[in-house]
């Protein structure tokens, strides 16, 4: 900020009588004298400048409650500051201070004192500031803490990290109001039994010391919610850790652990568990019972596999398996559908399964430095994925130059590849090269429909829900046919071929005589051509029957080449994969979804998309309809609920009106 702009800023504060002024990051060597005219100032920020002193004039700012002089060049605490007796927050961090004057004891209202990054020992004078609740002495060169610190009975947060302490000072253990204690990056080899006095501790940081075991005394601090013991020399964790039932964050990274005790399963409130840089050869089953975990770090161990039971950790949002010896992505991980970050870099992976598309909430996927030559096309379905890193792999598909451009380029490459493959599908009828002869005849009376090889147990519910919503919205007319598992009949080269889709739609059919039940449908005989067919893939299907052109009479081939159905839809509720194909020039072409993941179905003038929730006490990934304005078509059960709510509201309005009339002396029950 230029000198003129600094003056303008001060002038603005003066004219508007603002109570806060920040002149930080301006390389000031002295405080502008105009500042001392702002006697109403309550907060003054002068951090990150080049001040070597503070003039006596600052004492005119008698209303100051917060003063930040951090990151300057002060070699001593200016005497003038100690006369600002209304100060409650004083920041003197990152100055080359070697001492604090006795006069600081005048600041009896100080509640926060920040002395990070100086060259201090704990001055006796500070221990008389009995209203202090926050004291930060980290990054000094402390080797001890005076006994007099026990006077600071109101301290709730004390930071002594990055010093030279060899043990937890006994005096600190008398500060019984402490809730947060930071002792990381010192040289401590033990923790005294007296720490058990700190019964109000919720956060204890002992990272980067020289502890060889978890002190039993710590396990008595039953109010702890955050415990950091990382970067020590621990070889085991005691069973007594089960006492810490309020723990939500436990960091045991960078130790020498080869196992984790079974008792850890009792820490049911754990949301974050960090075990990076240890010597674990397998994922302890005890961990997989911590069902509230949202963040699990197992990076840089010696894992060769991940147990099936990890799928129990359904609340995981971050899983870090970087730097292990995994050769494949376990199927169990693909069931962790709440994952947003998955780190598998620096392993020995040779492939990624198609089932990774189940991780629909994934936003970041790290696969660097493995042995991957390709990525699965199903990654296209991960619509929330914003970061995919693949460097350091011998990639061929997609090419390395595409992968370097990021996730959007990879998606576009895979989409084009998929569309090209579909467009190049050719008839592969083994016995005839000529165009087949197709005629339309009724289903023979003695024809027995074959069972589909794979049944999707969700099919009846999915089909019923689609039809129900269309009916409730008034889309179904008497001349239409919407059915499930009803045989579609064609005669191909004098052979009767029948396929029974999971759901199909015909816009107009010939009416049946009264009392006759429709047991099949033959286009041109029974009515118009089929407009839409839909197949629901099963978990075991693998797509063989429904999405591959398998002549002469596979479903894809039958719908595309024989019936020539304009819109063919496949849906896998297990992978949340919806694909819609339009018939173009005699071939099915995959049609992309919009930004909401929905696909336009022109025959019904509706969008089709995936919706997760409950219907008739059944929770799963449903297919649902949306109109052109983005309004969801309700099921009849949802409409009934809305109608009841409207009726209840109308009844309540009527009751309120009747009560108002009675207040006016009018009987609402009398006829007009």
Characterization of the model:
InterPro entries: Leu-rich_rpt, Leu-rich_rpt_typical-subtyp, LRR_dom_sf, LRR_domain-containing, LRR_R13L4/SHOC2-like, Uma2. Residues 637-664 form a coiled coil. Residues 195-302 form the Disease resistance R13L4/SHOC-2-like LRR domain. Pfam families: LRR_1 (PF00560), LRR_14 (PF23598), LRR_8 (PF13855), Uma2 (PF05685). Keywords: Coiled coil, Leucine-rich repeat, Repeat. The protein is an alpha/beta fold and 672 residues long. Among the domains are: 280-429, Ribonuclease Inhibitor (Leucine-rich repeat, LRR (right-handed beta-alpha superhelix), Alpha-Beta Horseshoe), CATH 3.80.10.10; 439-634, tt1808, chain A (Alpha-Beta Complex), CATH 3.90.1570. The chain has 6 helices and 30 strands. The chain has helices spanning 3-16, 400-403, 407-423, 459-472, 555-562, 636-663; strands spanning 20-22, 43-45, 66-68, 89-91, 112-114, 134-136, 157-159, 180-182, 203-205, 226-228, 249-251, 272-274, 295-297, 318-320, 341-343, 364-366, 387-389, 438-439, 481-483, 487-492, 495-499, 503-506, 520-521, 532-536, 567-572, 577-584, 587-591, 599-601, 606-615, 618-626. The strands form 4 sheets. It has a 17-stranded parallel sheet. Strands 19-22-24-25-26-27 form a 6-stranded mixed sheet. The longest helix is centred in the last third of the chain and has 28 residues, at 636-663.
């Amino acid at each position: 900020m230029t000198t003129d702009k600094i003056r303008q800023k001060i002038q603005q504060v003066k004219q508007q009588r603002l109570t806060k002024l920040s002149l930080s990051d301006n390389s000031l060597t002295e405080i502008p004298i105009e500042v001392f005219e702002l006697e109403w100032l309550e907060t003054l920020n002068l951090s990150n400048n080049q001040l070597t002193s503070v003039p006596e004039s600052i004492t005119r700012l008698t209303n100051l409650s917060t003063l930040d002089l951090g990151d300057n060049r002060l070699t001593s605490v200016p005497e003038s500051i100690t006369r600002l007796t209304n100060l409650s927050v004083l920041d003197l961090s990152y100055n080359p201070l070697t001492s604090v004057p006795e006069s600081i004891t005048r600041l009896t209202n100080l509640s926060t004192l920040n002395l990070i990054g100086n060259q201090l020992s704990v001055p006796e004078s500070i221990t008389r500031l009995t209203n202090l609740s926050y004291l930060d002495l980290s990054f000094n060169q402390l080797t001890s803490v005076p006994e007099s610190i026990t006077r600071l009975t109101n301290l709730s947060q004390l930071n002594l990290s990055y010093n030279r302490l060899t043990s937890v000072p006994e005096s600190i253990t008398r500060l019984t109001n402490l809730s947060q204690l930071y002792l990381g990056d010192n040289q401590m080899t033990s923790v005294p039994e007296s720490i058990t006095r700190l019964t109000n501790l919720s956060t204890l940081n002992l990272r980067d010391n020289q502890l060889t075991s978890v002190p039993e005394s710590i396990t008595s601090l039953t109010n702890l919610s955050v415990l950091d013991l990382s970067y020590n020399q621990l070889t085991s964790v005691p069973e007594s850790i089960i006492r810490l039932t309020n723990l939500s964050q436990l960091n045991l990274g960078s130790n020498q652990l080869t196992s984790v005790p079974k008792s850890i399963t009792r820490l049911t409130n754990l949301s974050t568990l960090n075990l990076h840089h240890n010597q674990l050869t397998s994922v302890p089953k005890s961990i997989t019972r911590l069902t509230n975990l949202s963040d699990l770090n197992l990076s840089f161990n010696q894992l060769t596999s991940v147990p099936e039971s990890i799928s129990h950790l359904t609340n995981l949002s971050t899983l870090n398996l970087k730097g292990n010896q995994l050769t494949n992505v376990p199927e169990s991980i693909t069931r962790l559908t709440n994952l947003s970050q998955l780190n598998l870099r620096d392993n020995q992976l040779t492939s990624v399964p198609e089932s990774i598309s189940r991780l629909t909430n994934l936003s970041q996927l790290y696969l660097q430095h493995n042995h991957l030559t390709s990525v699965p096309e199903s990654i296209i379905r991960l619509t929330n994925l914003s970061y995919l890193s693949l460097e350091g792999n011998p990639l061929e598909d997609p090419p390395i130059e595409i992968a370097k451009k990021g996730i959007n380029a990879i998606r576009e490459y895979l989409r084009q590849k998929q569309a090209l493959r579909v467009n190049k599908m050719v008839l592969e009828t083994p016995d005839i090269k000529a165009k087949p002869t197709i005629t339309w005849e009724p289903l023979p009376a003695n024809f027995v429909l074959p069972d589909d090889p794979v049944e999707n147990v969700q099919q009846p519910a999915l089909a019923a829900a689609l039809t129900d919503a269309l009916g409730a919205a008034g889309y179904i007319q008497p001349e239409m046919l919407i059915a499930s598992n009803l045989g579609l009949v064609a005669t191909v080269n004098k052979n009767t071929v029948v396929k029974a889709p999971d759901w199909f739609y015909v816009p107009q059919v010939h009416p049946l005589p009264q009392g006759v039940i429709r047991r099949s449908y033959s286009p041109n005989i029974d009515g118009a051509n089929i407009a839409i067919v839909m197949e629901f893939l099963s978990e075991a299907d693998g797509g063989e029957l429904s999405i591959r052109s398998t002549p002469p009479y596979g479903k894809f081939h039958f719908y595309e080449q024989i019936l020539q159905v304009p819109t063919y839809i496949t849906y896998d509720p297990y992978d949340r994969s919806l694909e819609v194909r339009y018939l173009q020039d005699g071939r099915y072409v995959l049609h992309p979804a919009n930004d909401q993941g929905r696909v336009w179905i022109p025959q019904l003038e509706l969008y089709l998309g995936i919706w997760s929730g409950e219907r008739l006490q059944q929770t799963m990934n449903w297919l649902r309809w949306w109109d052109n304005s983005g309004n969801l078509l309700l099921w009849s059960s949802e409409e009934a609920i809305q109608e009841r709510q409207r009726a209840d509201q109308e009844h309540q309005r009527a009751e309120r009106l009747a009560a108002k009339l009675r207040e006016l002396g009018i009987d609402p029950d009398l006829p007009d």
